UniProtKB/TrEMBL annotation:
Database matches in Pfam families: 2-Hacid_dh (PF00389), 2-Hacid_dh_C (PF02826)
UniProt-listed InterPro entries: D-iso_2-hydroxyacid_DH_PdxB (IPR050418), D-isomer_2_OHA_DH_cat_dom (IPR006139), D-isomer_DH_CS (IPR029753), D-isomer_DH_NAD-bd (IPR006140), NAD(P)-bd_dom_sf (IPR036291)
GO molecular function, a single term: oxidoreductase activity
Protein name: 2-hydroxyacid dehydrogenase
UniProt keyword annotation of Oxidoreductase present: yes
Family statement drawn from the similarity comment of this UniProt entry: Belongs to the D-isomer specific 2-hydroxyacid dehydrogenase family.
Domain of life: Bacteria
Amino acid sequence: MKIVILDRKTLGKDISMEIFSKFGTVVSYDVTKENETKERIKDADIILTNKVYVGKNELENSKVKLICITATGTNNVDLSYAKESNIEVKNVAGYSTSSVVQLAFSMIFYFVQKLNYYKKYVDEQNWQKSDTFTHIDMPFYELDGKKVGIIGLGEIGRDFAKKALVFDCEVFYFSTSGQNQNSSYKSLSLEDLLKTCDIISIHAPLNEKTKDLLKYKELSLLKEGAILLNLGRGGIINEADLSKILDEKEIFCGLDVVGKEPIEENNPLLKVKNKQRLLLTPHIAWASIEARNRLIEKVALNIENFLKK
């Protein structure tokens, strides 16, 4: 078998691809541009793609029998054409839950504990000049008793909720599909969740129901001092409206995803004046070492199961 990895760089140099050698010859490309895909996969039996799009134009007249998506989302593959052409498509789910939730809480602590301010205070050599043993000019808070709202109570949302309970938080949720009837936590309307919760964390997919779910009107409902997180998908929060309200109201926002990635130079979020209210990370929530190793193992298992047929 010939296995082609289209965007090896997205999986990290610290993760080995050696496991795939047992299935055949492995050809690996760090990055594949749109006009390079067709040529690179034409003789492949199996292809691995994280974000490189593979559709009819790329697959036509190729030998591809299996597409392994090294992620959960499947929007980078033309599923209809693959089905018509008897090309199997396999993704991987559930590998990054702990990693995503860990970043969510890292962002919460960053804002709640005001770590950026206090690190800067010490780094700028102010502590040694103090006339008292402590410096508490920037108030910080405890998580105990805080109201936490979750938008999207899937596997990741449920894990986030479970860990929020450990900090004695009160957990609520809004179901973006309207189908979730989880009895462990109280369901709220989107409006009530935004109005009442101290911390709101988004763990929802991007679809017709969630696109621009939070625009200026919804963002205006947030309490002063509220923390809003998006570790779901870019596009759920309207970025122009968010950048506007961050300079108008004292709310805090942690984002690991944006609508177009990598972030574009003209993205309004990069022009926010109150930068202490915004924490941007470059889509890393999924990518702990453990999560990426689990991902590769599950991709290998997908190939193994396919070859057994």
